[in-house]
Amino acid sequence: MKKLRTNWKKIFGLICCVFLLTGILVSTNGIKEVKAATLGQSLTAPESGWQRIDNTDNKIVYKGTWINNNASGEYDNTDSATLTTDDSLTFKFSGSKIRLIALMANNRNNDISISIDGTEYSFSEYSGNAPVSPSFQSLVFEKLDLTTGIHTVLITNTSSSGGNGQKAIDLDAIDIDSTGELIDSSATLATGISLDKTSLDMKTGDTSNLTATVAPDNATNKTVKWTSSDPSIVTVDDNGKVTAVKEGSATITATTQDGSNKTATCTVNVKNPADGNALLTVTMTDGQQRSYDITMSQVNDFITWYNNRAGGQGGFTYSFNKTPSSAAYTKRTEYLIYDKISNYDVDEYKAN
User: Which residues form the BIG2 domain (predicted)?
Assistant: First the structure.
């Protein structure tokens, strides 16, 4: 009997573990599943990758008899609305996607015209809810597959009516790319950008300046952003000053910052400076001298070995390749013994 009770306890414990594990898996799956907002849904904050711009932004141009309303359920407690046919609003933005946030109610238009870069679409702000119980901050329109760039949006109150014969339209907020921005409609945007150099050959440690020219001459914002494709090789500062860091190639890009995203590039090739040559003369403790006509990097290697050996590190000998004494030999190596060296001299010169 005691054994039977023990078995039942084990079985019960196993069942509890199974239920617990199942619950964890379901919970985990629920956490991983992220659903994007859908049309008609109340969206009180922009989703990841988006930013929200209020209807009061001065880059939105309203035409007609629009009024600003104050309501606690709206984004920033404000919205803009009109009842007049053919009233419109327009704005420009940089990015690749857009959402419109508005109040949905049964006195709102169910056929509102929206044009993006001349392509016509439509959306509705009508819902069956009574006006006293409206749906605030609703997602009423979205376009997610625009090309990255500047887009012009025009929204017009058409003559179609809402559910109760009225034809009000509303704008609460605009959601765009988190990296985008609204563009001043009166601004003259950049149509192009060029650099005074399209390629540079530099040596490590050298600096050079690039100059960007933004067209047209009357562009409102001529600010550019400078970037390097590989800062470990070449860096560039906010003024276009280029610094060669190490040997290799990298691309410097200048990008307009008015939302037009025009770019120009310069390819930078970096090489190490000419090595230079030197005559290394090593005097031995017996007074004899050994001379080696070598590059400065080879001289530096010898000095590094000598200093390390003085500190008790490294081998006791250092070798130099020499020209074989006769054609019978293919290679000649001369070895210097550390404790037989008295001193050394380095005479640098420029190779022709």
Answer: 189-266
CA distance 162 to 220: 42
Rounded Cα gap, residues 304 and 322, in angstroms? 20
Q: Which residue matches tokens 């060669």?
A: 244
Structure tokens at 167: 């034809």
pLDDT in tens, 47-87: 999 999 999 999 999 999 999 988 888 999 999 999 898 99
State the pLDDT at residue 134. 74
Q: Please report which helix (H) or strand (E) contains residue 129, including its range.
A: none
Residue 14 has pLDDT above 90, yes or no: no
Domain that holds residue 54: 41-183
CB pairs under 8 A, 24+ apart, for 20-23? none
With contact defined as beta carbons under 8 Å apart, do 234 and 228 qualify?
yes
Read off the tokens for 219. 């562009």
pTM greater than 0.70 (yes/no)? no
The predicted structure's pLDDT at residue 166: 63
Domain boundary among 221, 241, 271: 271
